[in-house]
Amino acid sequence: MREAGKSETGSAPGLPGEPGVEDLAQAADRLFYAMRRSRAATVGQYAAGLSLAQLALLTPLAEGAGDEGLPVGRLAAHAEVSVPTATRMLKQLEGKNVVTRRRSPQDERQVLIRLTQEGAEHLAVMQAQLRARQYAALSQFTPQERHVLAAQLHRLAGVISETTPRPAGPAADEG
């Protein structure tokens, strides 16, 4: 007897039954949720109280925003949130002394964001904890397995990006 909601080939209802695709989709989902739980556990252990979304929003600032800072729109695009959502999050982070916000001297319509020293320290500690957790898990693979897995994950990320519809509008240019 077949499982409810699945076709004879094990694929989702209404989708072609390409061999192994459903198993791969389930494995990808399982990986996504395991990584999310791991990140949430790390975030929950750290007193700074940065959420996963805030962490994603701030990462480009730690990767070299320079003295000027980065525009809200670029941070929003990186975190895959709307500019208004990013603006609300950044106002909260400004209140916690994690970032500073100021108008661009070249374009008054643009708001530039910079990490404070305290914000940079919080972010560095959280990123180090996340990376240590990843290293602990990934070191269980042989060097050859890691190489093959990395190549396949990069390929999978590219394929997913190529097949993901792009949002309409100039969201990345705002802010």
Summarize the structure.
The protein has about 180 residues and is mainly alpha-helical.
Which spans of ≥5 residues are poorly predicted at pLDDT below 50? Answer: 1-9, 170-175
Secondary-structure element series: HHEHHEEHH
Termini separation (Å)? Answer: 55 Å
CATH second-level architecture of the domain at 49-160: Orthogonal Bundle
Give me the CATH superfamily of the domain at 49-160: Winged helix-like DNA-binding domain superfamily/Winged helix DNA-binding domain
Task: Give the CA-based shape.
Answer: globular
- Average of pLDDT: 81
Question: What's the CATH C level of the domain at 49-160?
Answer: Mainly Alpha
Overall helicity:
55-70%
The number of helical runs is 6
Main sheet characteristics: 3 strands, antiparallel
Per DSSP E runs of 2 or more residues, the count of β-strands stands at 3
Would you kindly provide a written description of the structure presented here, covering whatever features stand out?
This protein has 175 residues and is mainly alpha-helical. The protein has a domain at 49-160: Winged helix-like DNA-binding domain superfamily/Winged helix DNA-binding domain (Arc Repressor Mutant, subunit A, Orthogonal Bundle). It has helices at residues 21-45, 52-62, 72-79, 83-95, 117-138, 143-163, and strands at 70-71, 99-103, 111-115. The protein has a three-stranded antiparallel β-sheet with strand order 1-3-2. A hairpin with a 7-residue loop joins strand 2 (99-103) and strand 3 (111-115). It is globular, with a radius of gyration of 20 Å. The N and C termini lie far apart (55 Å). Residues 21-158 form the HTH marR-type domain. This is MarR family transcriptional regulator.
